[in-house]
Amino acid sequence: MSAAVARPIPESRRIRVRVWELPVRIAHWLIVFSILVLAATGFYIGHPFISVPAPARDHFVMGTVKVIHFYTAIVFTLAVLSRILWMFMGNRYARWNQFVPTTRARWRELRETFKFYIFVRRDPPPTVGHSALAGVFYAGVYGICLVMIGTGLAMYAPQASVGSPMRWFAFLIPFFGGLPTARLIHHIGMWLLLAFAVHHIYSAILYSAVQHNGTVESIVSGNKFVEPETLAAESEESDA
Fold this sequence. Notes:
Layout: H1 3-6, E1 15-18, H2 22-46, H3 61-86, H4 104-117, H5 132-156, H6 172-175, H7 179-211, H8 215-221, E2 223-226, H9 228-239
Antiparallel strand pairs: 1-2
């Protein structure tokens, strides 16, 4: 075990900080579970693997899966849009500048965090909220989520009933290069989100083990436990 992992922060020096507000945590878990359901149902829609005896119209398997996919997509869309909105309404750890480096300190932190991931640095720079590198990746993930929402609406528009407002989104079809291209982008986006989810879980566990700050638990409780120096340094940076 490396020295970084073996060096816990003394209990007496930890400060409990409310990092993730309730809207952030709710949006996070809604996005997590909706991605899992959307990936499973979307894969089935593209590659049906359930066979039923007797005519399909007697079972309506594909129709049921599409309905689940559609309503889960609504949950996903609302969760993503609410999280983006909270980037302009939430506390300092939820703000948009946590996802886009706007100061020299954040750029420096991004470089140092990258060094940690490529094993040049023993431990990552101490942070309270998102690290600068994680913030950049999350910004990209939200971009992918918006593309998934757009391509999903483009593919659904031609199937919507006559007079349905969902048909208005047909204007997105040329934007994504036609339905076949939109479907391909949608499929690639699914795998990118699933790949990110695997890395996200790994990184959360890694940071929690290295920094001993409750990173994994914080997305449930909202609280992290940090050293006073880390909190003071981050406060000075945000006030600068």
